[in-house]
Amino acid sequence: MKRHWLLFSQFVTVAVAVWFVLATLKPEWLNRTPRIAGVSLQEAAPLPLGAVMPGSLSPAAKRAAPAVVSIATTQTATKNPSSNDPWFRFFYGDRDDDAPQAGLGSGVIVSPEGYILTNNHVVEGADEIEVTLSDSRRARATVIGTDPETDLAVLRIQLDRLPVITLGNSDAAQVGDKVLAIGNPFGVGQTVTSGIVSALGRNQLGINTFENFIQTDAAINPGNSGGALVDVNGSLLGINTAIYSRSGGNMGIGFAIPVSTARQVLEGIVRDGQVTRGWVGVEPNELTPELAETFGLKDVEGVIITGVLQNAPAAKAGLRPGDVLVRVAGEPVRHVGELLTRIAALTPGVSAKIEVMRRNQALTLEVTPTQRPKTKAVQL
Question: Is 225 a catalytic residue?
Answer without folding.
Answer: yes
